[in-house]
UniProtKB/TrEMBL annotation:
GO biological process, alphabetically ordered: retrograde vesicle-mediated transport, Golgi to endoplasmic reticulum
Transmembrane segments: 21-39, 59-88, 100-125, 137-155, 176-209, 229-253
Localization in the cell: Membrane
Keyword Transmembrane helix: yes
Family annotation (PANTHER family): PLACENTAL PROTEIN 6, TRANSMEMBRANE PROTEIN 115
Keyword line: Membrane, Transmembrane, Transmembrane helix
Protein name, entry field: Rhomboid protein
Domain of life the protein comes from: Eukaryota
Any single Gene Ontology cellular-component annotation: membrane
Length: 357
């Protein structure tokens, strides 16, 4: 069983390596070269982000680009290469080389700025100069966190594993890796910047994909419900997160940082309703549209099923009786205590019927 799993994983990795694009191969190649350069302390000082050196008079601003290729541990490098190869195999054909490269810089450079600012904040609170000169910022953790968001957007309902307690879906991966990274940081397995970079990589990538990414059909962002910020959290707490996220979004709309959410309904015919959500890729939109149409057609079929003939509320007059002769309405007692629900006419009804006869 174990050998089969290892064999399948190795085959998928080989397929991803040979079928990946140029940008993916270059990123992985630079990661391997960066790990080799990490054995030189001077290279680590020059290529990683050191908060005290990016400020005047040094201005080592090139480190915001080179820091992501440096890893100090071999197992970090292996994870980076495997994740980049496997995920880029699915993402690069959909986005293209330019969009993937753009996404890489959008995630990594602002992330390095955020961590640098965080270290300055730590220094202001503790006056510990290690945060300025002795704790370099490096690694591809931000890009790995961003990849988990992209895969959630492309196939959110994919089941990764089934456990006795629950099913692990792609929706759960971003929050799960943040929790796992927090545990690793508590036991000193990863530095603090790894957790910060991973967390902000998820936030930055989701913000870009949600509001700013321009798609091939000319739309911008992805305002689908399955990609909301609350969908990253378990159902018990997602309503609370939704209130917070909607408040932040309303503030961004007022300051014109984001555009308001608009849905377009296209009634094509009497039996089909097409809902166009702005900013969804064609492949993803077709998948969701087919799923919605299938559910709608199933409901229409259930609605069109012939129902039983119910008696009309207004009884028509019998043609055998004269127009002026109509039966008096009779009162009927329903015995609810009797399980057989026998309908019993009253004594007054029997007497009235004999007199009429």
């Amino acid at each position: 069983m174990k050998q089969t799993f290892v064999h399948d994983a190795s085959q998928q990795l080989q397929s991803a390596v040979f079928s990946s694009g140029l940008i993916t191969k270059l990123i992985c190649l630079f990661c391997i070269i960066g790990y080799g350069l990490s054995f030189s302390s001077q290279c680590v000082q020059v290529l990683t982000v050191i908060p005290g050196r990016v400020m005047p008079p040094n201005f080592w601003i090139w480190t915001f680009i080179t820091h992501s290729f440096i890893e100090l541990h071999i197992w970090h490098t292996i994870i980076d290469v495997i994740v980049v190869f496997l995920y880029s195999k699915m993402i690069e054909p959909l986005w293209g080389t330019k969009e993937l490269l753009k996404f890489y810089f959008i995630v990594t450079i602002p992330n390095a700025l955020v961590v640098t600012f965080t270290y300055f904040l730590f220094y202001g609170l503790t006056f510990n100069e290690d945060y300025l000169f002795e704790r370099p910022i490096y690694g591809l953790a931000s890009f790995i966190g961003a990849y988990s968001v992209v895969i959630k957007q492309i196939m959110p309902d994919t089941i990764l594993a089934t456990t006795p307690l629950c099913k692990l879906k792609q929706d759960h991966v971003p929050l799960l890796i943040v929790i796992l990274s927090t545990i690793l940081w508590i036991v000193y397995a990863v530095p603090i910047h790894f957790l910060i970079m991973l967390s902000f990589g998820i936030i930055i990538s989701w913000t870009y994909l949600r509001f700013f990414q321009v798609h091939q059909n000319g739309t911008q962002g992805d305002m689908s419900t399955s990609f909301s910020f609350a969908s990253f959290f378990p159902p018990p707490i997602s309503p609370i997160i939704s209130i917070f996220a909607n408040t932040i979004f309303a503030i961004f709309v007022k300051i014109k940082l984001c555009k308001p959410f608009v849905k377009k309904y296209n009634v094509a015919s009497s039996s089909n309703i097409t809902i166009t959500i702005p900013g969804v890729e064609a492949v993803d939109a077709d998948r969701r549209r087919q799923k919605a149409l299938k559910a709608l057609n199933d409901r229409m079929k259930l609605k069109d099923l012939p129902s039983e003939a119910w008696p009309e509320l207004e009884e028509s007059q019998s043609p055998l009786l004269p127009p002026t002769h109509q039966l008096e309405p009779s009162s009927i007692i329903i015995d609810m205590n009797n399980s057989n629900k026998i309908l019993t006419p009253t004594k007054e009804d029997l007497n009235q019927h004999q007199i009429s006869a």
